[in-house]
């Protein structure tokens, strides 16, 4: 341990140095100072563990100097020297947690050794306390990393499981029962990206974990562990392998409700129906990971049991050429609604074929790469990470549409264009873009805007000059004209794509708003008009 001496009385300073040599203490004298200014400078240089300091220094006295030392190094131990006893001095010394208050004229080797021994003991005790506190703080900061290590050890099978479980105990994971059930809470990427940026997702993930940890204090048999994906892995320790999942699902619902309340995002819960013995932890975990996407095409529910297996189609004959053409049209025509049409048509076909989720995501990623290339934009890299982690086709489609629309806006919308149309009509247009393949009514729009239906109808006509039905039909017929101009396009397909189930009704609406029949807008294929196909003809 290191020691510093401070006294403006040089003979006294030399006397103390002399005594130190005969005490046999494990101390190293690293600095001696004769003035307050010199003492401050040297203290900052050497940061000693112990200081013997004269109170009666000129200028800044020893007590003021010691207070300054405490700010720089709070754990430093202090022994004060003085020429006389003074209650005022001793009281201030006590306030500074001094280890001793020695009278110079009475100083003896035994007394100095005793005082230094106490100071050294207290320094060591405080140092150990600080180390333990720092260790606890480090554990808290890194607990999730340590939990990941704990999980990895359990899954490796290489480490002794008993030692691994002891490691878990130190992290607060106490599994006393012989069986485990698994589940996970998934952060819905669409709900997250509607409110937060991609770079915020790790922080949101951590916040969800904190909410789960807080709630798990009331249900210690359930252990939340952050996964590498945007999920929260849950392990429920149970005594009976046949126990119903009520406790686990109730915990999931409590976390979901609180996350919705505070973070305004949606979680989905999934659990395995089976329980396994603790020693088979790795097999159940593997089953859970393999079955993450087994519900990819099932109806969305807040909490669901994972299917034990899923029958997916491995290949798709239909590769989305038409949809890619629609994406190109979204840029050419400045119509974002083509994006939703393209993605909706692709996902409907994928769902009908029950295509392997990996292939669905691959196609969605390619849609984004295509539009980024054509628009001269740059897709956010984190989009592809989040797409890979989606667990449902609706989630994958929603995330893809969002990224495609962002690219479209970057390419198409100028600031003046955004200001040209009333912001309230922009909100209506965006809803129509997202639901262009459906028959949207004024009631649907009113519900979306949280307005009374009759009030919305009056309000909209005053705002736009036309009633809502006319506005929607004109919007769709403008799209229909563009679609019909494409080679080989059929009236039936255009009607179906725009949400009309009947060709005759579509034709009637089309003529009302365009003044002509749909067939009059149909393009003549190049091979039928006697011309050689040109580059423009080949364009989708």
From TrEMBL:
State the residue spans of region: Disordered: 516-540
Start and end residues of each HTH araC/xylS-type domain:
426-524
Sorted alphabetically, the keyword list is: DNA-binding, Phosphoprotein, Transcription, Transcription regulation
Keyword flag Cytoplasm:
no
Q: Where is the composition biased (Basic and acidic residues)?
A: 531-540
Residue ranges annotated for the Response regulatory domain, each copy included: 2-119
Q: Does the keyword Ubl conjugation apply?
A: no
Q: Which SUPFAM superfamilies match?
A: CheY-like (SSF52172), Homeodomain-like (SSF46689)
Gene3D superfamilies documented for this protein:
3.40.50.2300, Homeodomain-like
InterPro entries annotated for this entry? CheY-like_superfamily (IPR011006), Homeodomain-like_sf (IPR009057), HTH_AraC (IPR018060), HTH_AraC-typ_CS (IPR018062), Sig_transdc_resp-reg_receiver (IPR001789), Tscrpt_reg_AraC-type_HTH (IPR020449)
Q: Which residues carry this modification: 4-aspartylphosphate?
A: 54
Return the PANTHER family for the record. Answer: ARAC-FAMILY TRANSCRIPTIONAL REGULATOR, HTH-TYPE TRANSCRIPTIONAL REGULATOR EXSA
Q: Would you tell me the protein name for this molecule?
A: Helix-turn-helix domain-containing protein
Q: Which organism is it from?
A: Paenibacillus rhizoplanae
């Amino acid at each position: 341990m290191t020691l510093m001496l401070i006294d403006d009385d040089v003979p006294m300073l030399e006397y103390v140095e002399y005594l130190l040599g005969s005490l046999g203490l494990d101390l190293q004298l690293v600095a001696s100072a004769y003035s307050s200014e010199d003492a401050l400078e040297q203290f900052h240089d050497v940061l000693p563990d112990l200081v013997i300091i004269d109170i009666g220094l000129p200028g800044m006295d020893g007590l003021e100097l010691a207070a300054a030392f405490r700010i720089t190094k709070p754990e430093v131990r202090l022994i004060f020297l003085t020429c006389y006893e003074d209650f005022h001095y001793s009281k201030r010394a006590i306030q500074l947690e001094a280890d001793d208050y020695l009278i110079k004229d009475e100083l003896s080797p035994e007394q100095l050794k005793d005082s230094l021994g106490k100071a050294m003991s207290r320094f060591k005790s405080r140092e150990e306390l600080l180390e333990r506190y720092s260790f606890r703080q480090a554990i808290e900061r890194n607990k999730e990393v340590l939990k990941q290590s704990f999980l990895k050890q359990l899954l490796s099978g290489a480490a002794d499981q008993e030692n691994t479980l002891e490691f878990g105990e130190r992290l607060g994971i106490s599994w006393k029962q012989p069986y485990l059930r698994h589940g996970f809470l998934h952060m819905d990427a669409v709900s997250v990206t509607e409110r937060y940026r991609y770079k915020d997702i790790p922080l949101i993930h951590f916040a969800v974990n904190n909410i789960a940890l807080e709630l798990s204090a009331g249900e210690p048999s359930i252990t939340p562990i952050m996964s590498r994906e945007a999920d929260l892995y849950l392990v429920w320790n149970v005594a009976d392998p046949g126990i119903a999942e009520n406790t686990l699902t109730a915990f999931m619902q409590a976390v979901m409700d609180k996350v919705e309340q505070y973070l305004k995002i949606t979680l989905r819960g999934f659990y395995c129906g089976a329980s396994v013995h603790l020693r088979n932890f790795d097999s159940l975990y593997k089953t859970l990971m393999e079955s993450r996407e087994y519900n990819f095409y099932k109806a969305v529910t807040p909490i669901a049991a994972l299917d034990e297996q899923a029958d997916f189609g491995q290949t798709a004959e239909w590769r989305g050429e038409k949809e890619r053409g629609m994406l190109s049209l979204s840029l050419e025509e400045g119509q974002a609604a083509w994006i939703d049409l393209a993605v909706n048509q692709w996902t409907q076909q994928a769902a009908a074929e029950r295509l392997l989720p990996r292939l669905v995501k691959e196609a969605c990623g390619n849609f984004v790469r295509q539009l980024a290339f054509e628009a001269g934009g740059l897709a956010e890299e984190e989009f592809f990470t989040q797409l890979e982690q989606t667990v449902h086709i609706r989630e994958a489609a929603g995330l893809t549409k969002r990224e495609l629309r962002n690219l479209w806006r970057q390419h198409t919308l100028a600031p003046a264009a955004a200001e040209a149309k009333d912001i309230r009509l922009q909100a209506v247009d965006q809803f129509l873009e997202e639901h262009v393949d459906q028959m949207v009514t004024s009631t649907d729009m009113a519900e979306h805007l949280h307005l009374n239906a009759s009030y919305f109808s009056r309000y909209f006509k005053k705002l736009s000059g036309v009633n809502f039905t006319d506005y929607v039909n004109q919007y769709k017929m403008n799209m229909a004209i563009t679609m019909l101009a494409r080679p080989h396009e059929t009236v039936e397909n255009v009607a179906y794509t725009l949400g009309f189930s009947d060709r005759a009704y579509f034709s009637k609406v089309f003529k009302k708003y365009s003044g002509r029949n749909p067939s009059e807008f149909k393009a003549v294929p190049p091979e039928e008009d006697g011309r050689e196909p040109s580059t423009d003809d080949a364009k989708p």
